[in-house]
Design a protein that fits this description.
The complex is a heterodimer.
Chain A (H helix, E strand, L loop, with lengths): L9 H6 L3 E5 L2 E6 L4 H10 L1 E5 L4 E6 L4 H8 L15 E7 L5 E9 L4 E5 L4 H11 L4 E5 L2 E7 L3 H8 L11 E6 L2 E6 L8 E7 H12 L4 E3 L2 H10 L41 H10 L3 E8 L10 E3 L9 E9 L4 E9 L8 E6 L2 E8 L11
Parallel strand pairs in A: 3-13
Antiparallel strand pairs in A: 1-2, 3-9, 4-7, 4-8, 5-6, 6-7, 9-12, 10-11, 11-12, 14-17, 14-19, 15-16, 15-18, 16-17, 18-19
Chain B lengths: L1 E2 L4 E6 L2 E6 L1 H7 L2 E5 L6 E2 L4 E7 L3 E5 L4 E6 L9 H4 L8 E5 L11 H8 L1
Antiparallel strand pairs in B: 1-2, 2-3, 3-9, 4-6, 5-8, 6-7, 8-9
Classes of the chains: A alpha+beta, B alpha+beta.
Chain lengths: 374, 119
C-alpha cells in the first residue's frame, strides 16, 4: 500500500468508515458503512458526494487563446471544439490511428484557454499525448486541486446555498466561482445520469468543502462501488472496459459525440487520428455495436461473460464489458458488444454464466432515464 | 451452532442440519442480489460448491460443509435475496441437509472459537 497515491480527502474517508481499495494507483473509498445499494439509491433520491480527485485536471493554453488551442486539439479528438461556446463543455475521446479510443475525456472552453479532465488510469499517457500532439500549446497538469462530484436531484439546492449562481447553470455549462472555499471551477455534469456538479477545489480547501457538503442532511458520501452501478444504469462507458484502443467510437455507439463539423461534408471534416475508419463507419456502419443487455433472470452477467446467439452450440458472438445489479431498476444489467444484426432492441441472446446459458435481452440505454438540467 | 472457516453456520434441527452464512460474511459480501440454489434431492459431498451468492460486488461460492442430501432450500431468497444481509442467521438461511454422518460436525468451531477466528 505504501506506493499508493492519496487524495486530499483520504483521512476523511477513513474517518467516515470507508472501505479503501487501490484504484488507478490511488487509495480510494469503494464504499462507506451504508453499502453500495443504499449509497446508489441515496444518490438517485437525494444527493451523493464523490471524491474524484484521482482524475487528471489539465489546462491547455495557446498564444492566441482558446480558438488556437481548440484548433490544435481537434487534431487529437473528433469533437467540434472550435464551435464550442465560451464556458461550455463537451464529452470527447482521444482516438488512435486505427480508429480506437485512447481515453475519454471532458473538454471545456474557458474563455482564454481550454480545461480538460481525463481518467486517472490514463492521465500520464494522455498528458504525454497532448504534449506531443499539440505543438505550440502549453499543457499544464493541475496537481494542487481536488475534484469532487455532487450528484442527484438535491445537488442544485445544496450547492446553490453555498455557491450562489450555480443553479442558473445548464447541463454542460462551466463556471469559475469565488467562494468561502476559494476559487471553485464548477461544471454542471457528472457520471451518474443525475443532475449535478463537478467541483474543482484547491487541495487545502477540499476537506472543508467536502465536510460542509456532508453536513447537509441531503448529502451522503458515495464510493466507487455505487459510482460504477450508477454510471452503468445511466449507460455510460467505463474506459478500459466498455471502450478501449480496440473499439471505435462508432462501434461504441458514441457517434453522438462527433459533431457535424467533423464528419464527412462538415466544415472541418476528419483531421483526427483514425478518421478514415471512423468516417467510413459513420457512413456505412460498423460490424458490431455496444448495446444494453437485460438478463431475464436475477443473476448478474459480469464483465467477460461470453454471449451466444443460441441456447446451445456455436461460438461466442460477443461478450459483456460491464455487468452488475442495478439497485434502481432492481434487476441485473450489462453492456457488451454484439454483431450488428443482433444488436437490435428486443433480440434475445444467451450469456454463459457458470457453464449455463441464460437468456438476455438487448435493451435500450440508458437503463434509467437521465435527469439532466437542460 | 457450529461454524466453518468459510464463514458458514450449521445448526442441527431434529435430524437435519440448517446452513447459512455468518453476519461477518454477509457484511464482507455486501448487499446480496441473487442466490443460486441447488436442487432439492441433490446428493452432496463435503466441499462441493452448492450455492452461488451474487452480491453488488462479486460472485462467491458456498461449499457443502458435510456429506448428505439437500432436502430443503430457502425459496424466499429467490425473490428477496436481501434477507441474507438482514437476517443471516435466521430468515436468511440457505438449505437444509440430511447428513450422512453427523460426526462430521465435530471438526467445526463453536461460537467462541469462531469469534476468535474472525477477530
Amino acid at each position: 500500500m505504501a506506493d499508493l497515491l492519496t487524495t486530499p480527502l483520504n483521512a476523511m474517508h477513513r474517518e467516515l468508515g470507508a472501505k479503501m481499495v487501490p484504484f488507478a494507483g490511488y487509495d480510494m473509498p469503494v464504499q462507506y458503512p451504508a453499502g453500495v445499494m443504499k449509497e446508489h439509491l441515496h444518490c438517485r433520491a437525494s444527493a451523493g458526494l464523490f471524491d474524484v480527485s484521482h482524475m487528471g485536471q489539465v489546462i491547455v493554453r495557446a498564444p492566441d487563446g482558446y480558438a488556437e488551442a481548440a484548433k490544435a486539439m481537434e487534431a487529437l479528438v473528433p469533437v467540434d471544439l472550435v464551435g464550442l461556446g465560451e464556458m461550455r463543455q463537451r464529452y470527447g475521446f482521444f482516438t488512435n490511428e486505427q480508429g480506437g479510443i485512447l481515453d475519454d475525456l471532458m473538454l471545456a472552453n474557458r474563455g482564454d484557454h481550454m480545461f480538460v479532465v481525463v481518467n486517472a488510469a490514463c492521465k500520464t499517457g494522455d498528458i504525454a499525448h497532448m504534449r506531443a500532439g499539440l505543438p505550440g500549446c502549453e499543457v499544464e497538469e493541475i496537481t494542487d486541486r481536488a475534484l469532487l462530484a455532487l450528484q442527484g436531484p438535491a445537488a442544485e439546492a445544496v450547492l446553490e446555498a453555498m455557491v450562489p449562481g450555480v443553479a442558473a447553470m445548464q447541463f454542460m455549462d462551466v463556471g469559475i466561482f469565488a467562494s468561502e472555499f476559494g476559487e471553485l471551477w464548477i461544471s454542471r455534469s457528472g457520471y451518474t445520469g443525475e443532475d449535478g456538479y463537478e467541483v474543482s477545489v484547491t487541495e487545502d480547501q477540499a476537506e472543508a468543502l467536502a465536510r460542509a457538503l456532508l453536513a447537509q442532511d441531503a448529502v451522503e458520501p458515495i464510493g466507487l462501488g455505487a459510482r460504477d452501478s450508477l454510471r452503468l444504469e445511466a449507460g455510460l462507458c467505463l474506459y478500459g472496459h466498455d471502450i478501449d484502443e480496440s473499439t471505435s467510437p462508432v462501434e461504441a455507439s458514441l457517434i453522438w459525440a462527433i459533431q457535424k463539423a467533423r464528419r464527412a461534408g462538415g466544415a472541418r471534416e476528419g483531421g483526427f487520428p483514425g478518421a478514415d475508419r471512423i468516417l467510413d463507419e459513420i457512413a456505412n456502419g460498423a460490424a458490431r455495436a455496444r448495446v444494453g443487455l437485460r438478463p431475464e433472470g436475477r443473476a448478474p452477467m459480469r464483465e467477460g461473460t461470453p454471449l451466444f446467439e443460441a441456447a446451445e452450440g456455436g461460438a461466442p458472438v460477443g461478450q459483456v464489458t460491464s455487468g452488475a445489479f442495478g439497485p434502481t431498476i432492481q434487476a441485473p444489467m450489462s453492456m457488451g458488444y454484439l454483431p450488428k444484426p443482433l444488436a437490435t432492441e428486443g433480440t434475445v441472446i444467451y450469456g454463459e454464466v457458470r457453464g449455463k446459458r441464460m437468456p438476455v435481452r438487448v435493451a435500450k440505454l440508458p437503463f434509467t432515464p437521465a435527469n439532466f438540467k437542460r | 451452532m457450529k461454524f466453518t472457516e468459510e464463514h458458514e453456520w450449521l445448526r442441527v434441527e431434529d435430524d437435519l442440519v440448517v446452513v447459512g452464512i455468518t453476519e461477518h460474511a454477509s457484511e464482507q459480501l455486501g448487499d446480496v442480489v441473487f442466490v443460486e440454489m441447488p436442487e432439492v434431492g441433490t446428493q452432496v459431498t463435503k466441499d462441493d460448491e452448492v450455492v452461488v451468492i451474487e452480491s453488488v460486488k462479486a460472485a462467491s461460492d458456498i461449499l457443502a460443509p458435510i456429506d448428505g442430501e439437500i432436502v430443503e432450500i430457502n425459496e424466499v431468497l429467490a425473490d428477496t435475496p436481501g434477507k441474507v444481509n438482514d437476517d443471516p442467521t435466521g430468515d436468511g438461511w440457505f438449505f437444509k441437509i440430511k447428513p450422512s454422518d453427523l460426526g462430521q460436525l465435530d471438526e467445526y468451531m463453536d461460537e467462541t472459537a469462531y469469534q476468535d477466528y474472525i477477530s
